[in-house]
Amino acid sequence: GLMAGLKIGRMMLGICQTNCYFVYKEGQNDVILFDPADRGDYIYETLAGHDLNVAGILLTHGHFDHIWGSRKLKELSGAPIYAYEEEKEVCEDAGVNVSAQAGRAYTVEADKYVKDGEELTIAGMTCRLIATPGHTKGSCCYYFKEDGMLISGDTLFQESVGRTDLPTGSMSRLVRSIKDKLLCLPDEVKVYPGHGESTTIGYEKEHNAFL
After folding, report:
1. Dist. CA 22–CA 139, nearest whole Å
2. Binning pLDDT at 50, 70 and 90, where does residue 167 land?
3. Are 119 and 112 in contact (CB under 8 A)?
4. Distance, CA of 163 to chain centre
């Protein structure tokens, strides 16, 4: 149900066509921004141009294509950065997060490292961090229960799953995370992944060959 009336917007940015999402309440100006890709300044200016204010920056994981814009966006917006506590090393090590190999070594320190299952309320919007290790050791998803929305990062894609050949990745852990932590969510929950188009939990249960 749409009790809280949350809306979601998307920008596709960067060399990896990373999905950068912003969630907001209709009629309000604050947004929660997920995975600021590589264009912190562009994101800030685009949202500001629509009178939208970034109230929090949430990372699903620490890979370069999801974090390159994070420090700039924080600097411009003043918004704190949140990440799962198990992803601290990936965020803060340019070798582990593959940014050095990608040609632009980069690290980010979260202002708040969040625990598995912890609820975050930012600007009156509440989501829960669900730890889903596998793509990286500290990959996570963010679940807006009342609105049936899951920001899944690079854990679960439409008819696919995240790659596990990068540092700290594990396919067995990834599949177990999805089965144990995500497929138990209601079938109608909409899934917004880090790359590609959105899907639903029910659709992936039926059609995802990896599961």
Report:
1. 19
2. very high
3. no
4. 15
